[in-house]
Sequence to fold (670 residues):
Amino acid sequence: MAKEKRTAEEKTIDLAAQEMLIRADSLGIGTAFHRADDMTACNIGSAGMCCKLCGMGPCRLTKDGSTGVCGATIGTIQARNLIRAIAAGASAHSDHGRDMAFTLKAVANGEAEGYTIRDVARLRTVAAMYDIPIEGRAPEEIANDLADLYIAQFGQQRGELVPTSRAPEKRIKLWREKGVMPRGVDREIVESLHRTHIGDDQDPTHILQHAIRTAISDGWGGSMIATDVSDILFGTPAPVLGQANLGVLRDDMINVIVHGHEPTLSQMIVAATQDPEMIEYAKAAGASGINLSGICCTANEILMRQGIPAAGNFLQQELAIMTGAVEAMIVDVQCIMQALVALASNFHTKIITTSPKVRITGATHMEFDEHRALTIAKEILKVAIDNYKNRGETQIPIHREDLIPGFSHEYINYMLGGSYRASFRPLNDAIMSGRIRGVAAIVGCNNPRSQHDFFHTYVAEQLLKQDVLIVETGCGAIASAKLGHMLGDSLDLVGPGLREIMETVGIPPVLHMGSCVDNTRILTVLTQMVNEGGLGDDIDQVPAVGLAPEWMSEKALSIGSYCVASGACVIFGGSNPVEGMPDRVSGSTDVESFIDQGWEDLYGGKLIFINDPDEMVNATLAHIDKKRAALGLPAYDPNKFGQSGDARMLEFESLPIVERRAALYGASDK
Ligand code: SF4
Ligand code: MSK
Fold:
């Protein structure tokens, strides 16, 4: 039976994306949405029950009690597939972190053209955490030592990964007790592959213990290093005005999109687009200037630091090209669809690969090298400008929305107390009093098998109504941005207690905390909340939940697992890589139960898969309330809050000036 095709409205809730999907249909061009409709996912593979680790297979296990040729059980095969995915995700983040550390080293030694240490305060703070001497030393000297320390974390063979020292004390002790303290990033990833080779580790729970160790080496290792170095080199994010969605593209300008994850090249592209020589070159080509925007997490990197607009999230990479208005899409690593090249051949868009690690057949390759970064950025930009003359008919959706991104943990600390008394105290107090019921981090990708952006934004909206503070990263953050949830004037979405806090502090309902590698910022916030006092002495006691409602990448599984290892309850939507198969494999599999209850018993955190968005919301609230009760905090009661004077002030502010004066001073004072 032919598979049913979804309408554009069923594929995405985003109006700009819908318009481009209709255009795709009229031009007869396929996208990931169409391919997802055409391709039925293999139910054995999606449940993690297919093993192809040796030449005796592939072995597809479909019934209770069945085994592979070697005797491997469903549990072993699911655990092996899961740890391999986590190891791949950890390797992607961590290799990014390694490259950032090498860039820091090059900058410290004056070998990286165009880069400087933008955030010396952050450099000193991070260095001091590791007892690197800072007093009386030049930033470059400190950066050199920090770079050496960070580079060493990848190849370290013994001992403990140094950045794990930033976790709460009790958590560190727990990791040591359970034998999951990572030794070195590369070592844990290599061992994951070794253990899953035919004939090695065949006890599912033992395999998954190492999955936890590998994931910790990502979250408290490679990813944390990536975030630290990005902040040091490009500045710690602070609120800035930005825009999101395909409507940021311009008909009268050269449209250049950066897509991928690493900020090293994109930051130089930002600098190059502002170079008078390049602007003149663009004008000479007949355009009114250069319009830079981003897709995916590269978008997040330059959005939260410079306010460069985000053209869209993961599922909009093809749709941006569909506008016909993009001269070049410059890609680095991760989440880049191979389909871009074929799709771009229908238009004039050039797909330019830049990483030595990533080539796509048919794309133009212009390799990036941080030692000549600005020069290369300008060369790439010239290719885009030269391509403007080839532009044909365009259709740019009008939809775009303003947003305020840039809520790094440093900024959250500052905004809660100002420079006089920067502190997490007000946040903890608000949770303890019940004004804020709890915290949810909504992160991760889009997946064309679910309605684009719907899960992210629906879950966020429902939780906001329940006074849950929302922080977001990655493509989920861009989904919220496109709906205007990252603006102060969206406060109507929010429950009464949370609204009081937002009005007092001056923050939007959803806080944008960065790219997917920046989920480490959330670990830092949770640790600071613990250290502030009043919410227990470890992360597993904080009323907080992590959600990845539309996940698709292996990185998401690594993120979810390091959050579990850190004590968080994590809820994923969409496909469950360790599920049972209805009618064939009964109930939850051993692995599914283990990453839920088993991990909770060991680490206080758990990983669960829920497909229904309302159930996701209910599970989140239930977990938050359970943690509140365990801390002895008052039960959540929305009727207690919402009467602050700030609300009255906002009412005044919304009045036309004449009425406002009349309300304040009487009708005669006009
Ligand atoms: Fe089959 Fe075992 Fe080989 Fe996997 S390792 S493919 S289960 S024989
Ligand atoms: S880009 S990993 S689709 S968040 Fe970070 Fe988005 Fe997920 Fe890629």
Summary: The domain at 414-577+586-630 is CATH 3.40.50.2030 (Rossmann fold). The chain has five domains: 8-60, 74-234, 242-390, 414-577+586-630, 640-670. The pocket of iron/sulfur cluster (ligand 1) is lined by residues 51-54, 56-59, 68-70, 72, 77, 198 (CB under 6 Å).
